[in-house]
From TrEMBL:
Species the sequence originates in: Acinetobacter pollinis
Protein name per Swiss-Prot or TrEMBL: DHA2 family efflux MFS transporter permease subunit
InterPro entries in UniProt: EmrB-like (IPR004638), MFS (IPR011701), MFS_dom (IPR020846), MFS_trans_sf (IPR036259)
Family annotation (SUPFAM superfamilies): MFS general substrate transporter
Taxonomy, superkingdom: Bacteria
Amino acid sequence: MQPQTKYIALLVALTFFMENLDATIIVTALPTMAKTFNVMPIDLNIGISAYLLAVATFIPISGWLADRFGARTIFISAIVLFTIASVLCGLSTSLEMFIFARVLQGIGGAMMVPVGRLVVIRKAPKNELVRAIAYITWPGLVAPIIGPALGGLIVTHVSWQWIFYINIPLGAAAIYASYQLIENVKNNDVGQFDFIGFTLLATACLSVMYAMEKLGQQLDQMMPYLLLAAFGVAIFMVAIAYMKRIQYPLLKFDAFQQETFSVSIIGGSIFRISMSAIPFLLPLLFQLSFGLSAFQAGLLILTVFVGNLVMKPFTTRLMKHFGFRKILIVNGIIGACTIASSALFTPQTPWIIMIILMFMSGLSRSLQFTCYNSLSFADVLPKDKRYATTQFSLFFQISLGIGVALAALILRATMYVHGHAQAELIDFQITFLMIALVSLFALIDAFLLAKDAGDSVSGYQHRLN
């Protein structure tokens, strides 16, 4: 890989790390933050959802802005906004102020990673695409796992505000590197901004995510929010139909004609929904049901990160030896089993058993994420890369937001059925089993995938196997 491409990929990886770290680092801090804001810990999941929702809402405009004003200008502006918003999060004294700051932070995050990923994909040749995407992807896998541990360490020994202040030096380093590495390339042929398309997409995202959030809080008033979610899905379909008919749409969907991209979006989103629920649920389980401190809970979950690390050197070889289809099917089943295994955890379960199971979860998680991310751009045409990058980032963030909201919804539903004012062990166990069941739906796309799908990227030779 050319040195400049490698360094840009590492720079984008840093911003991806910042974005995903802030999506999950507050998980172990929720009980402490809840006392500051005078709310229940589970109610603070809106702080996670609001951030992810803002990211998903503003991702679609990132590609247009990069073409109109230049990739470097938008990339650096996004980092500045993200860093300032992080400071505001730390200064928050009420839940309302915190949510506002998280939304600003999400808007900054929406510009950072898609623009950076687009720069990398445009520069990297096809035979180096897996390595380039691996550089970007790995921090996204690491951040949600070390986030709870890091958050627990900071909350225990300093204060929860510092989980946001650590973005200041990271942001400063990223801004400096951006000036040195990224060219401010513009596209003079970019059309007018598709305001109608953006409004439709934003309305769809807000409706679905808000409905999921409220369903998790008010199960006795389900129908209005179910209708709102259905409305959001309908608006999303209207947005797609509208953008297919105009000359300069906010998004084009030609990349979905490629089977590999379609599978990475649909099946990959289902997988990410399931996996993103786990870093939210486990810290709450360990603190509320096991009585562990925030730091102890985060440290225990760190074993998933160890699994990610151990698997990373083997992913390229596994993809080359087995191909994408076999891995997505077999490893998808293994991943579902590791999620379901969390339902076996009790305060009496030996720590070594929990550590082994979470380590296996990390192995499976890392391999599956890398496969989906590498498969996504295997056959995308150059003319579709800008839109495909935006769509990948959009569905990635939406799936993370839905995962957290779905976990909260199922957890609250089990609490409601059992008449529990606070989540108890049985509520967590049922939730883990339900999330594992959801993850199995990702296998449908994997089974339909061609046996030689993505061979040009993975290096897999089907005829020899």
